[in-house]
């Protein structure tokens, strides 16, 4: 017959197992983020042209300009301790507080509406920046951007470059891409300033997965972009629209290009 000490140790072991089982199943206030979709702003997304322009002649383009996203655990899905521990060491995923994605006090519907509004504002700024650089009258040239269901402002730079490439290219009859798959991220305002966005390390993974060899990154986020940079992906820092175009033209001509 087991001794009292043996029975006590066995009971403690059972309690620890039970506690671990409960902890492993209890939902945690965290969200898992990972590389999301990318979309070529020069092409189609879900069977629809991303950039539609009227009122000005368009040019045939080659290569791709891919905007990038990150995907988060849907708000209705709960993260357990076991799931979080499995994701934590994975360089292709990030475990972050749920409030970083779904702020407290705001419903999922509110967050989605805010993301959609930010995307619309980003598209308007991208159009304004592109037409301003090309000295085109926004009352004559109409631009429609069809990516409203991808929320947030981080595609602004790639929208702007896509509009410019379709209308003017590099200004000398060539493509901004040089025939490459170029990806990137960054907000933009009407004056052409490029802003930081967050999640860059995961976006570089999405870009490389979908064939990109060049990634345009806001200068302030170069450090984050260098973390686990995919092999074969060149990081080019940008502060402004003019700087991004100059870097792409330099890359295409074989001139020196800054890197992160």
Characterization of this structure:
By secondary structure, the chain is α/β, with parallel strands linked by helices. It has one domain (36-70, 106-253): Ribosomal Protein S5, domain 2. It has helices spanning 4-25, 81-87, 108-133, 156-167, 200-209, 222-225, 241-253; strands at 30-40, 44-45, 48-49, 51-54, 64-72, 94-97, 142-145, 181-184, 187-188, 194-195, 214-218, 234-238. The protein has a six-stranded mixed beta sheet. Strands 2-3 form a two-stranded antiparallel sheet. The chain starts with a helix and ends in a 7-residue tail after the last helix. 34% of the residues are buried.
In oligomeric terms, what are we looking at? single chain
The fraction of residues in strands falls at 15-25%
CA-CA gap between termini: 69 Å
List low-pLDDT spans. 8-26
Keywords: Signal
GO molecular function, one term: serine-type endopeptidase activity
InterPro entries: Lon_proteolytic (IPR008269), Ribosomal_Su5_D2-typ_SF (IPR020568), Ribsml_uS5_D2-typ_fold_subgr (IPR014721)
Protein name: Lon proteolytic domain-containing protein
């Amino acid at each position: 017959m087991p001794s009292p000490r043996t029975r006590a140790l066995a009971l403690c072991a059972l309690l620890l197992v039970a506690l671990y089982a409960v902890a492993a199943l209890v939902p945690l206030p965290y969200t898992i983020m990972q590389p999301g979709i990318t979309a070529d702003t020069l092409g189609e997304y879900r069977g629809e042209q991303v950039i539609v322009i009227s009122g000005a002649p368009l040019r045939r383009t080659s290569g791709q300009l891919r905007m990038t996203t990150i995907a988060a655990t849907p708000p209705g899905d709960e993260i357990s301790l076991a799931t979080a521990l499995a994701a934590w060491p994975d360089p292709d995923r990030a475990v972050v507080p749920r409030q970083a994605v779904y702020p407290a006090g705001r419903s999922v519907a509110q967050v989605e509406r805010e993301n959609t509004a930010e995307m619309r504002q980003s598209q308007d700024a991208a159009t304004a920046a592109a037409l301003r650089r090309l000295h085109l009258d926004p009352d004559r040239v109409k631009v429609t951007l069809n990516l409203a269901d991808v929320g947030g402002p981080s595609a602004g730079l790639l929208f702007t470059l896509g509009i410019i490439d379709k209308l003017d290219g590099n200004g000398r009859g060539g493509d901004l891409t040089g025939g490459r798959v170029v990806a990137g991220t960054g907000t933009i305002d009407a004056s052409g300033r490029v802003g930081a966005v967050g999640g860059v390390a995961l976006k570089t993974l999405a870009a490389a997965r979908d064939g990109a060899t060049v990634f345009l990154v806001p200068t302030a986020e170069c450090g984050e972009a260098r973390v686990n940079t995919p092999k074969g992906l060149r990081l080019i820092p940008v502060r402004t629209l003019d700087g991004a175009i100059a870097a792409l033209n330099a890359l295409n001509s074989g001139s020196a290009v800054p890197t992160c």
